[in-house]
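Hi P.,

Sorry for the delay on this. The queue was packed all week, but I finally got your sequence through. Input first:
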Amino acid sequence: MFIYHAPILVSPKNQGEQGYTMQMPITSLRAGAVAQVTALLGQGGSFQRKLRTVGIREGKRLRVVAVHPFAGPIVLDIDGRQITLGRSIAQRVMVRVEG
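Then the structure:
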């Protein structure tokens, strides 16, 4: 089953920022995109603990190396390490795309 998550507009946390920040799941990105993790939407401590163990946490920069077809995994580069995430987990990692 494939669930599409549309981008989410989030109001800025710091009063010095203007406008809105666009958040979207990693599954919305294409290979080569650079983004910053903004939220982990998984429920339960084990989900977030697993992601944090491999280096995926709020504020971390990542680059999408490959998006495999047919609902295959997504390969990310985080701090020089390549990490593979299944689509169901990647859909719950929200990011902000960087220029």
